Amino acid sequence: MGNIIADIRQALKNSVDEKTKSTGQKFFKEEIRFYGVKVTKVHEIAKQAFSRIKDKPKKEIFALCEELWKSGLNEETYIACDWSFYIRKDYKPEDFKVFEKWVDLYVNNWSSCDSFCNHSVGEFIEMYPQHIEDLKRWAKSENRWVKRGAAVTLILPARKGMFLKDIFEISDILLLDSDDMVQKGYGWMLKAASQAHQQEVFEYVMSKKAIMPRTSLRYAIEKMSQDLRTKAMEK
User: In 3D, which of 142, 5, 154 has the Cα closest to residue 69?
Assistant: First the structure.
C-alpha cells in the first residue's frame, strides 16, 4: 500500500504548476498546505492510480484514503475524496463513522470540506437517509468544518428536491452562526433547495430575514426570480 502513496506523491511533485503554486493561497483565509497542481491534473492522477487498487477491499481503500487525508496537503485530500466516491456503490451504513472521523479530524478548509461532503457524504445520505439526523448533530458541532459539512452535504440532494424539511431544520440550527464559512454553507444549501422549491425557500427566507445574516440571505436567493430577490433584500 505504501508504494502507491509514494507514487502519487511523486506524480504530484512532477506536476506542479508554478502559477497554481503562486496563486493557490489567495483563495483561502486560513493557511493551507499544497503542492500547486491544477485540479484537473489532480483528478487525472487520482483516476490513474485508482486503476491499481480498484479490486482491493473497501477497507484497504479507505485506509489509503486516510493516509492521504493525514498528510494535510490539499491535492492529496482531493485524491482521497475521489477514491472514496469511486466506491460509492459499496457504501454501508457503518461507513458513516469513517466519514465523520475524516471531516472532524482532517478537513481544514472549505475546498476539502466541499469536495468530500458534496459527493461522498451526500451520496451516502441519499443511500441511507436515516443518517440525516447525524447531520443535524453535526450542525451543533464546535468544529466549523463539521458545521459547514452538515449543510453542503445536502447540496446535490437539494437540487433534486430532496430533504426540504431537514434542510430547513439544519438552517434553523445554523441560522445565527457568526462564522462566514458556515453562513455561506447553509446559504448555498438553501439556494440549491430553491431550484426545486423556490416558493418554499422564499417563504423560509422571508420568515427569517430580520435575523438571518446578509451573507446567508444573498446566497439563498441567488437563483430566485428578480422580483423575489428584490423583496427578500428590502430593509
Answer: 5
Q: Yes or no: say if 232 and 221 are a contact pair by the CB < 8 Å rule.
A: yes
3-state SS class at 195? coil
Paired strand residues for 226: none
Give me the numbers of helices (H) and strands (E) for the chain, helices first please.
Answer: 16, 0
CA dihedral 54→103→95→79, nearest 10 degrees, is: 0
Strands (E) in the chain, as ranges, are none
CA gap 61, 21 in Å, rounded: 29
DSSP summary character for residue 56? S
3-state secondary structure at position 60: helix
Cβ atoms < 10 Å from Cβ of 62: 19
The residue type of 91 is Y
Measuring CA to CA, which residue among 53, 47, 40, 45 is closest to residue 12? 45
Cell 479530524 found at:
105
* Tens digit of each residue's pLDDT (9 = 90 or more) over 24-83: 899 998 999 999 999 999 999 999 999 999 999 999 999 999 999 999 999 999 999 999
141 vs 156: CA distance, rounded Å = 22
